[in-house]
Write a structure and sequence with these properties.
Oligomer: single chain
Distance between the termini: 31 Å
Strand order of the largest sheet: 1-2-3-4-5
Order of helices and strands: EHEEEHEHH
Helix content: 25-40%
Strand content: 25-35%
Number of helices: 4
Radius of gyration: 14 Å
Structural class: alpha+beta
């Protein structure tokens, strides 16, 4: 399996997110989103972001390159993000998704109403 570590938001991350149909306009310098990623040499294979919302963390921008899909990298990135959230003192991770709900349901995530989320999550622009 690939080594997962902290990465910076850069052009390769933006390209991978855009390829996956994920937003990038609010990412970059000055954001509260930190990224983890996995690469093969200089080629980014996958990434995931965690946005610090104060009272909770929002998992966002989980993307895996087409050529690296169906090999467990998405699950490994999710687990690494959950571990990082715990290290930051957040035992629960929230996310907003429209098309990846089945993937997250397999990993124990369940739907909740936005109004039931912590205030920091409910107030996000996502």
């Amino acid at each position: 399996m690939h080594q997962i570590g902290t990465i910076r938001f850069d052009a390769s991350v933006a390209a991978l997110l855009r390829d996956g149909g994920l937003p990038t306009s609010d990412l970059g310098t000055g954001t509260r989103v930190g990224f983890l990623g996995a690469a093969a040499g200089t080629r980014l294979l996958g990434c995931v972001g965690l946005e610090d919302c104060g009272d909770a963390v929002l998992l966002r921008s989980l993307a895996v390159a087409r050529q690296a899909r169906n090999a467990g990298l998405g699950t490994a990135l999710l687990e690494a993000a959950e571990q990082r959230a715990r290290e930051l003192g957040h035992p629960m991770v929230y996310l907003l998704t429209t098309d990846a709900a089945p993937f997250f349901a397999i990993h124990g995530y369940r739907a909740v109403e936005r109004a039931d989320a912590p205030p920091g999550i409910a107030a996000t622009a996502q």
